[in-house]
Records
---
Amino acid sequence: MSFRSVADLIARPNPRSGRVRLISANWKMNHNHLEAIATVQKLFHLLRPDDYRFAELSIHPPFTDLRSLQLTFEADRMPFSLGAQNCHEAPSGAFTGEISARMLARLGVAYVIVGHSERRHGFGEGVDLVAKKAAAVAESGMIPIVCVGETATERAANASIEVVQSQLDPVIAALPVADLSRLVIAYEPVWAIGSGTPADPDDAAQMAANIRAFVSDRVGEPISDAIRVQYGGSVGIGNAKSFLEAAGIDGLLIGSASLDAEKYALLIQGA
Ligand code: PGA
């Protein structure tokens, strides 16, 4: 690809919102470090300068791939942001098998997903733990992507807004104001994740408006205007654009549709 400099490939703010779009690939427990390198190399080959200018692209591989991708991005000057999927809330200590936010920061990680529904529901992470993790991420100079969203049962009980607010509240309380304006909130209805049934983009836009109203109520409008809200849950080539065009949606958090470089490049280019 031809471009003048890496600065040429920095994502531009969306003229409609003034915020920079963020499209994040959550690979979950997929791709070993060799597959990860091959995937980003293919993606880099397929994407064009306009794709990078349209949105910042973060890649969230398993922990074991982070060092490989850090070096690959640097060596080939790939304009991707490095992301992680989780971290421990403590800076260090006797926590066998865990990884701290500080360790991730040293690897050049820019964004860390916290409170993904697979961690809340599969690993029993509660709202206070998620808030501690978000605070640890911010304290290490990275940006937390805090996932929020209701289950199908909560939705049926008309409790979606209440659930999302109860997930957000401890995070807002745990983060210093300066870090709050950089926060990314991923609205991911649990029933939409990996199900093939995405939310309606209008409903996602409504939830983004509710999230901003709630944040504004707690910490003021300048912060609620600055935070970015992603949508996640069964995003694919056929619907990515409709979510990105929905009012107040600043990006996407994408699971299975981000694993194959060719399909993911088409998704980004179609958005
Ligand atoms: P999905 O996952 O795109 O496969 O539905 C999204 C997520 O869990 O972040």
---
Amino acid sequence: MFLALRHLEIGYDDIGTGPAVLLVHGFPLNRQMWQPQLGAFVGRCRMIAPDLRGFGGSRGTGPYGMDVYADDLAAFIDALELPRVVVVGLSMGGYIALAFWRRHRARVRGLVLADTRAGADDDDARERRRGLQRMAREEGVAAVADTLLRGLVGKSTRETHPEIVNAVRALMLAAPADGVVGGLEAMITRPDSAPTLATIDVPTLVIVGDEDVVTPAAEARTMHAAIPGSRLEILAGAGHMSNYERPAAFNHVLAEFVGRLEYA
Ligand code: MLT
């Protein structure tokens, strides 16, 4: 499906009925990374997965930033006439979810922060991302995908499910170079969200794969400790793409979390 917003065209999936759940994808991916969740909640939730500006089926140019992505999502749920949603963000999607909380908190019914971190990049991380921007421009997105792939998928999945590794690589190859460079810019310039955590007063679930090397479990524990009343779930045998690598476990904890919101 497509929806035209101001200077943007958003590609998205919208499946099921019930409490609205907004799925925000990571970098350099697109909404197809939520395939294991989209069909699994029919009859329980309305799962809505948009492509961020510059990725997948969405069109639109810069500027890129976490606030820009967050405002795009607010305009998107306005267009769908959804007053409040559960925001689920994985990795860069989590950085965006935290920006969305700062800018549009009245629209947030609950938060799920998966395989992400609150802190900003340090100088080394910024330098690495500058290198990836040059790589995307000079060598193309495939070179970036091959550099990132090992970090995105956990050791167990790499050893036992090569088809998942190949699928994640294919998702990355679909990213346009401009969107990749823009996503990297958004991550380089993102602020420290650590002070935001104590302000979160909606039900929050923190999820992480125990083999995540990009945003390790220690980051999830730090967020969990700082977000009042939050819950932490560590998924065994999953890496950074925990929703894609261990979909049954991920869906189980997500379903339980959303189910409890009905009574919150
Ligand atoms: C992501 O999965 O969105 C990225 O790996 C996040 C990051 O590089 O910080």
